[in-house]
Fold this sequence. Notes:
The structure holds two protein chains of two kinds.
Chain A: H1 19-24, E1 39-45, E2 51-58, E3 68-70, E4 95-96, E5 102-108, H2 114-119, E6 121-127, H3 134-139, E7 150-158, E8 170-178, E9 190-196, E10 200-205, H4 210-221, E11 228-232, H5 245-260, E12 264-267, H6 270-276, E13 283-291, E14 297-309, H7 315-324, E15 334-343, H8 357-375, H9 379-386, H10 406-416, H11 419-429, E16 435-448, H12 454-458, E17 461-466, E18 472-475, H13 485-497, E19 504-506, H14 525-546, H15 556-570, E20 573-578, E21 587-588, E22 593-594, E23 599-612, E24 618-628, H16 635-654, E25 660-661, E26 664-665, E27 683-689, H17 706-709, H18 711-723, E28 729-730, H19 734-752
Parallel strand pairs in A: 1-12, 8-28, 10-11, 14-15, 18-19, 24-27
Antiparallel strand pairs in A: 1-5, 2-4, 2-6, 3-5, 7-15, 8-13, 9-10, 9-12, 13-14, 16-23, 17-18, 17-20, 21-22, 23-24, 25-26
Helix pairs in contact in A: 4-5, 7-8, 8-18, 13-14, 16-18
Chain B: E1 6-12, E2 15-21, H1 27-34, E3 53-56, E4 59-62, E5 75-77, H2 90-98, H3 107-120, H4 126-132, H5 144-168
Parallel strand pairs in B: 1-5
Antiparallel strand pairs in B: 1-2, 3-4, 3-5
Helix pairs in contact in B: 2-5
Amino acid sequence: MRANATTRVVGTPVPRKEGAEKLHGRARYVDDIEREGMWYGTTVRSTIPRGLIRSIAFDESFDWREFVVVTAKDIPGKNHIQLIIADQPCLADTQVNHCDEAIVLLAHPDKHKLRAAAAAVEIDYEPLPAVLSIEESELRDVIVWGENNVFKSFLLQKGNVDEVWDQAAHIVEGEYRTGAQEHLYIENNGVIAEYSHEEGVTVWGSLQCPFYVHRSLLAVFALREDKVRVIQTETGGAFGGKEDFPSILASHAALLALKSGHVVKMVFDRMEDLAATPKRHPSRIRHRTAVDEDGKLLAIEIDLGTDGGAYSTLSSTVLSRATLHACGPYVCPNVRIRSHAWATNTVPYGAFRGFGAPQSIFAVERHMDEIAARLGMDPVELRRRNFLREGDTTATEQLMREPVMMNDLMDRILEESSFYARKMRFAQENPTSAVKRGIGIAAFFHGAGFTGSGERYLNSLAGIDVTADGQVRVLVSSTEFGQGTNTILPQIAAEALLVEYADVGMAPADTRVVPNSGPTVASRTAMVVGRLVERASLQLVGMLRSEGLLAAEYSRDEFFAACERYRVLKGELVSLCRYEAPPNVFWDDQEYRGEAYPAFAWSIHVAQVAVDMTTYSTEVEEYWAIQEVGRVLNPVLAGGQIEGGVAQGVGYALYEKVLLENGHMANNQMTNYIMPTAADVPAIHVYFAEQPFAYGGYGAKGIGELPHDGPAPAILNAIRNATGLACNAIPLLPEDMLAKLSEVAAMQKDVIR
Amino acid sequence: MNAQWSTVQLTVNGLRHTVQAPPMKRLLDVLREDLRLTGVKEGCGEGECGSCSVLMNGELVNSCLVPVLQAAGATIQTVEGLAPQGELSLLQKAFLECGGAQCGICTPGMLMAATQLLERTPNPTINEIREGLAGNLCRCTGFIRIFESVVAAAATKAAAVRKEESHAR
């Protein structure tokens, strides 16, 4: 498949499938759904980071009639949330391990009575010492999880770094830190649950992964597969934040539904959502790098730590992706990466767009600029000398089988951004200006799909059917939450079937209707699920032809006539395909060696900043992003993914700070957790280079997470260029820059003395 | 009905309504619960995100910050009033074509902010658009395609006006 291969539907900016409903205000999000006789639920949460639950008391002066109360004792099945390791309780029973952990659930027909009721529940604790940072956790004075506070660790080795240090022209060391980040989807988490003896548990909710929720409910309720049904409602943003948490909320609402005998809705307000749900893992990443006189990387040693929070949830896989992206898009013969996900007594950190890679890429791309500074080399040139090329291997010795376009991307982005002209102009203007301007770059890659053997384990099933009323439906559990699933998958099916985009719709994301095409995560939908839909569509055409119903060439009308005849002959017309790994793919889970990802997307970002040296505030003035994501399936949607990711990355770098006080998020309001507004985002220029991937849907690779990797390092590198300050921690708010300046000033004073 | 509740009349999307509600009940809840206009969304409940934006007597307000008593006698427009005949308005079409809506949860409020902006400033500059929409948060788009949607809607409107004028001559 070539980029310029003629396609009618794929590659065109067809409008978003559900767009009109959203624009009319008719799209039904979970809180828009009312049911007759519905009750409402709320959660009583822990107020301490760690301790034993001594007693739960209910204020006797409060009128508890008509309230339904659920505690861990009411769980019919297992009291855990089924994810990778089942260590997280559905409801805390004897001990709490983080603030805002759920202990008691309440339901009542009047939602306005819930707040007072929650306040009338008194929980008495015996506090235990808590661990609240990576540093405290790795000391192991207090063990809060397992035997050693370690959720997961990796040791990744290539060559032998120890033989290199003595010969290196330069050894450059640095420590980089990234903070927690909140997804801040505008729709808070919410579900509606119903229970009946005949049907079992049914949940409607704002969620990414219907079958994750399904699996968790099976365990909590000890029910058979057909007695649990999960239906995604329109979802108002997710970004990873609705990957694992909906399993907890769905379990809670369903427990209340079971005990009350009513349909129960639980929708968080913003404060609860911010305080109680997962965020991006904070990280501390130390680099030690050996380079020769020409700037060639000789050895990279990385010590990578993430804060995982109180339960393991997704920390092991986030750590894996962080580890596998830690060297960036560069080739180096000798690599050693030690990484650990540490337990602390905070709300478990979870999936967020990029899934560990933004942390790693921030560190390596800031570090590349520091290496360049040490060598007195242009940061662009240093990167060019070390980019992975076709035939090179990554840190896991994954062979780059296809051309890597990084140098081409670099040429283009330098030209589009007038990189050197701007840099020169700022160097001339800055000395006489209180506003210092700078320009910075970040180069990176992002692995698409599940890591290593992940896609094989998922073993996804997806397909299409044609209904009696002549509608083609895409059958997937892959969900829409703004990123475009509902649009690109019908585009793919329409292309392959030679019908119109309008002829293809989505079957409801309902576990009773659709097969398990895997979770909607890891930038896998276009590439992996898209490919399955493409194959299933071609297979369906083959089915019609093998019955002699369709000629080699056919019109749209002939296609639907053939479908109708097939249905008359055989009943249903359904075509499903199961995942098949690309050939020659080898991955060793034990040694962490081989093909870490089926494909990488590649990108370079350039940021221009203005730093006001009176207020220490930084403005990103203009932004350029170029990427190679395989085939672009829909240019409007793809552009929107890049721009949205860049804006989130700007927030990650400069605005968004999660303030924890004794393990509780203190700024859990939109008033004081600040994201970029329409007035803050820079002009963003987006460019695509297309190199179709043979095993992705119509050549697509992953795109969704990629753009979040670049902004933080590009912006902090631009600040370095503007001010000379090597700021190595994000978020970098004005007060953080002031602190950094004071630190530098103190060091200089020491030197003068 | 509770004795302390107020009777409030308001005109919403051209229809007159009488609602009985506690006087401090949020206009947001009256619109969503009493009138079932669920296009109005709640994002933060404290006037930061703008998802609940509606036009009240032509002014853009966060309906989560307006007690219903304050809306007595007011004329309200919500997203449901933008396309009363069912066909998307120029502005809504522009959002659809330019990719101004992704997850869609901020979209109703964003459309109301853009509606007011274009009423007051038919051909806004990019800075006027940024300022006009700065009270409405979108986490998906990075705003760029929302700006483009507003520009496109303004241009289509201007072209239509020019055509009308030339016909009038």
